[in-house]
Amino acid sequence: MRFLVLLLFLSLVTRAQKDSAITIPMLGVHFGAQIPLGDLDERFGNSFTAGGSFMLKTHKNWILGVEASYLFGGTVKEDVLEQLTNPDGFVTDNEGYPANLRITQRGLILGLTFGKVIPIFKSNANSGLMITIGAGYLQHKVHIYDASQRVASIAGDLIKGYDRFTSGISVSQFIGYLHMGRKRLSNFYAGFEFYEAFTQSVRKLNYSTGLPDTAKRNDILMGFRIGWILPLYKKAPDDFYVY
User: Fold this and answer.
1) Which of 54, 67, 230, 237 is the 20 to 30 A CA-CA neighbour of 77?
2) What percent of the chain has pLDDT over 70?
3) In angstroms, rounded to a whole number, what is the distance separating the alpha carbons of residues 132 and 65?
4) Would you call 203 exposed, middle or buried from its count of C-beta atoms within 10 A (0-12, 13-18, 19+)?
5) What does the DSSP 8-state code read for residue 92?
């Protein structure tokens, strides 16, 4: 009897050690916070991202993916409305009163990613250190919101002369930890991300300076990201994450 109990115990232990990596399609949502560096630091303050992704983790633990992120922030360092500001330091509306303007940062990041998951624990071959690199497109602009719609100087297409709309190609890097649990709600990743974008203004003229903006920019974002993953399999294999 004891021999049978011992065999059963060894069987369970052996099964736990045979956990193997599997191919997993993954839908994800993510949130991040970044600090700007390079030329971007001269225009904006700290920012945030929110977005979604689709990734495929192969049975060899390679990662292939596509992702999109909405970029936003509340600090704009560059005075894009300097030409419209009166000596008292504010912009007036059509009736001569201080305008109710909200000036913030807005942007978009699109990209393809490729990387590798390096398992750390033998009992969970689908989780571990996740390292990815990527390439894509990054854009940002100064978002000017006229709450009362009473400033004729920035109405309609005129606002494009002040928004500093900028875009270009970007590269990215991510290093963090990916956890794939037995239950769908326990799948997530977290880590540090970096973006380097090579951008240029897409506007023909900046109204505040009266000159075209032809400067080449090196816009950098460095921050932290956390994401939640929904694996797209109906049921986990029997030997998936046995502890």
Assistant:
1) 67
2) 87
3) 10
4) middle
5) B
